Amino acid sequence: MDSNVIIASLGEVAVKGVMTRRRMQRALLSNIESALRRWGVSTYSLRIEGGRFYVENINDIRKGVISLMHVFGLEKVIPARMIAFDTLDDLAEQLGKLYGGLVAGKKFRVTASRVGKHDFTSIDVMRKVGGALRRLGGIVDLENYDVEVHVDVRDKKAYAYTSFFPGLGGIPEGTEGKVLALVSGGFDSPVAAWMMMKRGATVDYVFFNIGGEEQRKILYDVCCTLYCLYSYGRDQLLWDVEFRWIFPLMNTVPVSLRGVYLKKAMYLAAEHIALKNNYKALVTGESLAQVASQTLQNLVATEDGVKLPIFRPLIGMDKKESIAKSIEIGTYKVSVKSKEFCALATPHPSTSVKTEIINKYIQETNLLDTIKTMIENYSKTIKLSQACECEKIIQEREEEIGKKIKI
Q: Is 319 left (phi over 0), alpha (psi -120 to 50) or beta?
């Protein structure tokens, strides 16, 4: 593809109010620069004009396109050819040279848009360029076409392209408040964290380790995948809490209640960390009735007394949907190695635990004291920028995406 510029169009950000749009555009500009650098684009210039970002003078179009496909807030990523022209005839001649071989013997159409003062209209552009390509062997067909040539005229420049790639949509990461995501390494919780990043949240992670080093390794790999591929607004933190000290307490709780007890212990521990570090909400990968601890009654019992909002982006999704999303975002190949460690603690779970009953066991086992001890003495905070091998993760992702698209 003969391209020398990348155009990235805004999605939802474009319809925000003036002040909000400006704030989000500034954040997106910074995130784009961070993404380009992380993906190995060393030379480029970046500007915003008319609600679009233009990456010019870029040394690697392919890396640039794939990197921007991983930035929240962008709707389309377009590898294009920038053409300076004097007259409409001049533009049509240049586009004929550029695309004549592509459309020869094929059905095509031309679409055009125009900004600035010209002695021609957008329809004139379509007719003139279409005529030039028809003379070079193309067959005009406005309905059943094989190739669509887009021409975007901006004053004395035109941006031409025949394909584009979908962006992630959403709003720029880091433009909303801080949230703390409870992650285990399985399919659901990383997808939930990703979905909150898509909505602009500043996401950090908390990991309550009950599975030992095997679970820890998988969890770190999952968090690094999310950080390296999608987090460009700031460094992400991982709170790593050794949580197996809770097992002696659970031995005093009826077997049928242990799943809810363990889940509530994690909520309370996450809340303890969140309140001390200015997080505004907790995030989980729970889906209604997916497992025993996620029935409506058990969710009510689990979150009772938790002061912070608990966001559950997957609440209406089934397992197949969350797995499909994990494949799409690149966490599946790590999460598929994970075991359901929480399920091991509850062989015969109750699906309808009364709030007052679980709260009674919370008090009788002095759970809050144990949580405080675990966090203060058996936890650590990790900066993912220092812990993750982003170059390796990005290279693997680039190879994966490169098999699906032609750039």
A: alpha
263 vs 380: CA distance, rounded Å: 21
Q: Which stretches within 140-254 are classed as H helix?
A: 188-198, 212-230, 247-250
Which distant-in-sequence residues (6+ apart) come within 8 Å of 259 by Cβ?
291, 292, 293, 298, 342, 343, 345, 346, 349, 350
Nearest Cα residue to 377 out of 236, 259, 245: 245
pLDDT at 97: 96
Q: How far apart are the first and last CA of the chain?
A: 6
Helix, strand, or coil here: 272?
helix
Q: What would the pLDDT profile of 301-316 be if each residue is shown by its tens digit?
A: 999 999 999 999 999 9
Which of 274, 71, 281, 310 shows the shortest CA–CA distance to 176?
281
Closest to 215 measured CA to CA, from 249, 189, 236: 189
Amino acid present at 333: K
**Other C-beta atoms lying within 10 Å of the C-beta of residue 32:** 25
Please give the pLDDT value at position 403.
Answer: 84
The string of pLDDT tens digits covering residues 121-162 is 999 999 999 999 999 999 999 999 999 999 999 999 999 999
Is this structure's pTM higher than 0.90?
yes
Percent of the chain with pLDDT over 90: 92
> What does the block give as tokens for 281?
């909400």
